[in-house]
Design a protein that fits this description.
Helix content is about 65%, strand content about 0%. The mean pLDDT is about 90. The longest helix is centred in the middle third of the chain and has 21 residues, at about 50-70. The chain has 6 helices and no strands. The chain is mainly α and about 110 residues long. The radius of gyration is 15 Å and the shape is elongated. α3 (about 30-40) packs antiparallel against α4 (about 50-70) and α5 (about 70-85) runs antiparallel to α6 (about 95-100).
Amino acid sequence: MASVVDAVGEPITTSSVLMASSKHIASKCRSENVAFLKCKKKDPNPEKCLDKGQEVTRCVLSLLKSLHQRCTKEMEAYAGCMYYYTNEFDLCRKEQQEFEKACPLE
């Protein structure tokens, strides 16, 4: 797998990158996700929650950029393993441990 960011440093949000970062996303973007889910539960009209969805997207992209800057090698190794093994966490535990050691949950 190539880099998890494009030529200008923007995160490439493949499923393997999102899966590898899922614990960090759950922790860092929790409030944005909860607000979005509450909005969706309150009103099923997708237009009513676009702003909340954009906040979630903004949070995730910011987090991915930060993770890549702080622990590039470990993140790319973990996301690459997840890509190779079709997002099977069990087959990438070594890379996961190295990633979580380099970029611990806050």
